[in-house]
Amino acid sequence: MIRDFKKIIGAFVKIIKNLFHSIMSNLDRKGLLFPVALLLICISAYGILVTKLGYYFDDWPVILMIKSRLNFWEFYKFDRPFSAWTFVVTAPLLGINPFNWHIFTLLLRWLTGLGAYWTLIQLWPRKKREVVLMTCLFVVYPAFWQQSIAVAYSQHFITYLLYFISIGSMLAATGKKHRALFWSISLFTTGMHLLTMEYFWGLELLRPVLLWIVLAQNEADVKKRIKRTIKTWLPFLIIFIGVIIWRYLIVKLPEDPNSLVIFKLLSDDPISALLGLSQTIIKDVSYLLITGWYKTFQIDLIDLGVPYLVLAWLLVAIVSVLSYFFFRFRESNEEQAGNSSWTKQALLLGAIAIIAGMLPGWMVNRQITVGMYSDRIAIPALFGASIVLVSIISILINSHKNQIILVGILIGLAAGAHFRTANDYRWDWVDQQRVLWQLYWRAPTIQENTAFFSDGGLFKYTGDYPTSTALNVLYSQRMNSFEQPYWLLELDDYYKDYGVLLENTKIDINIRNIAYSGLAKDSVFLDYIKDGSCLKVYTELDADNLVMLDLFRRAAPLFNSTRIIPENSFVPDPAVFGPEPAHTWCYYFEKAELARQQAQWQTIADLGNQLMKEGYGAIRPVEWFPFIEGYVHTGNMEQAEQINFRVIEKDEEVLPQLCAVWENLAGHYPENSDKNMKISQVWQSLSCPLEIP
User: Fold this and answer.
1) How many angstroms from the chain centroid is the CA of residue 147?
2) What is the DSSP secondary structure assignment for residue 581, as one 8-state letter?
3) Reading across the β-sheet that carries 523-527, which strands appear in turn?
4) Are 417 and 142 in contact (CB under 8 A)?
5) CB under 8 Å to 49, separation ≥6 — which residues?
6) Which of 137, 554, 603, 640 fits 386 for a cystine, CB–CB 3.0-4.6 Å?
């Protein structure tokens, strides 16, 4: 029995192996094997959850500009005047559907990998195996974790792709075929990538090094090679210097967020500045080559009880195994083992590429590990890090088979880590959709010039400024105006002095040329706990709410429900926010809160009857409170008492808040009225600590 089972398994494995080999052979004959394999690696890391991802961070301002038909050139003139062209070209094609942007940026990541391969294969045409390893590692290298912020980082990968096209074309132009065409393409794309954004400026320092390596293939005379290298590099150097002069001397930016801070620091205190810079370099390089890999294999993430973690580790195994088979198939008997001269050259080039890639970030006094979104500084250094890592592996491990096993495992681990990160972004998008749809249910229309306040950020990957633009995408109907009618402010960050707010001060916000202006009293207060419970919008009816955070309680005099208009004037765009969620508990809660604001007690009672008929229940017991009020005011004391039991059964600690609800209800009726007496009976049955005042 066991032997038969082994034979069946062996036959199955053989069939799969032969099928896999047949597919690869067919693709290889057509010259598609490597591009397809590279695309599959990118999809495994970034594409599995692509239909579940949305907008984050600096995606939202771009979506606002598309929706409101704002001028990209006007928006980007404040820091990167020429970079607007990327969205001028892509926005009309991709629109406001998140799926389009995620597919686009994934394809850019793939094309950037092909650009890196084109560059490397021209440097080392006899090292195809090593070049393939470097490229596959490059597209998933675990140092930049924000691929899911697809709209914002499409600019970066467009620029990265332009850089590799410029480098690859320059190297190709040193040959004999199509020299004029390659020169034209290289010079044009060099100017385009330099003008678009400064992230990849440091990599321009690689040009003479790359030219030196390529020219060595046909030019043995050192003096002639030096002259030709300088002569070839000179036009690109002139373009580079010209762009720097234009950027820092000609263009007058209102406020430059990327000024060369390092020179001022060196001027003020050279020793401290040099020590600080040295420390930053050591930390960033260590992160790139060593500590960044820790995220790919964390022991505490091995949990077979969590489905997505099981899927992530299964993905690691599949990608590792398939990468190994792909690399083995690519092995050629004609290829020679790596020699010490090549590995030294590759190691030196990779080290230079890391330093050159990180240089723009260091010049503006930034580093990879400081700040939530700072790992974007690592994007230009991914190229050099991949070269260095493969070079080190080639030096330490002699066996080709063991080399590709190790690189395959590293690629699998990196893909699994990127998948887990994408899953975090997926849940953040779920939170955003929940909150924005619930806000729409609770406040169908908001008067213009209204500020939203929250206790810190509402979402993990979307701060106050991006969330502000998201709220304008949701509510604003303005077109062609950078003056926006809504803004989100974090109470703990922006307004610690509530005395200032209570003086009816004016709130003026300007970020680039997007502006908001309003009065502090014209505000809506939002509270969202990421535990599956519903969004809470505080109004003056909640001024004595015992559950409310002290942060909100001190700002209670600003609660202003008149900013909320009950009638619908629009429907959220499903292309952005997805289809309207099913009407489950939170829908009924938000609608009950809206009805409570208008004292529509029968509406609340009807909503309560419907949700109990559907069988929905609250995550947080306090979300039952508006239904208690609705039932009491409509005379259904029995139903109100049943809710009491539900609330206490779920959480006995909520009793003081429940007592406060009944105390507030008693205040609506004369002391000796029948309803007041019934409320007193309920109060006593709850064993509330004091008599109703």
Assistant:
1) 6
2) P
3) 486-490, 450-454, 523-527, 536-538
4) yes
5) 419, 422, 423, 425, 426
6) 137
For the chain, counts of helices (H) and of strands (E): 28, 8
Radius of gyration of the chain (CA): 31
Which residue, among 114, 17, 15, has the nearest Cα to 321 in the 3D structure?
A: 17
Residue 78 has pLDDT above 90, yes or no: no
113 backbone dihedrals φ, ψ, rounded to 5°? -60, -45
As a whole number, mean pLDDT of residues 38-45 equals: 96
Ranges 227-241, 553-567, 659-673: which has the least confidence: 659-673
Where do the structural domains in the chain lie, given as residue ranges? 1-31, 32-426, 445-565, 583-693
Helix (H, G, I), strand (E, B) or coil at 4: helix
Q: What residue spans of 364-399 are helical by DSSP H?
A: 382-396
Give this prediction's pTM.
0.91
Pairing mode, if any, of strands 523-527 and 486-490? unpaired
On average, the pLDDT of the chain sits at 87
- The token duo for 333 is 């008997």
d(CA 161, CA 106): 12
CA atoms within 13 A on the CB side of 580: 10
Long-range contacts formed by 273-281: CB under 8 A, 24+ apart:
277/362, 280/362, 280/367, 281/355, 281/358, 281/362
Identity of the residue numbered 157: F
User: For the chain, how many residues are written?
Assistant: 693
Residue 19: pLDDT above 90?
no
Whole-number Cα distances in Å, 453 to 59, 203, 565, 598: 21, 43, 18, 22
3-state DSSP call for residue 525?
Answer: strand
Judge whether residue 86 has pLDDT over 80: yes
Mean local confidence (pLDDT), 137-150: 96
- Helix residue ranges per DSSP H, 2-127: 2-29, 33-42, 59-68, 72-76, 85-94, 98-123
- Which DSSP symbol is given to 444? S
Neighbours of 113 (CB within 10 A): 27
Query: Which DSSP helix (H) or strand (E) runs through 181?
Result: helix 179-196
The bridge status of strand 514-519 relative to strand 506-511 is: antiparallel
Between the alpha carbon of residue 64 and those of residues 465, 471, 517, 572, 576, the distances in Å are 12, 9, 18, 13, 10
- Tell me which amino acid residue 668 is: H
Cα distance between residue 517 and residue 451, in whole Å: 9
Over residues 403-409, mean pLDDT = 94
Give the residue carrying structure tokens 């090549």. 342
Bridge partners, 527 (sequence order): 536
Tell me, what's the pLDDT at 567?
87
List C-alpha distances in Å: 286 to 199, 291, 293. 20, 6, 10
pLDDT digits (tens, 9 = 90+) for 280-302: 889 999 999 999 899 998 888 88
Residue type, 166: S
308 vs 141, higher pLDDT: 141
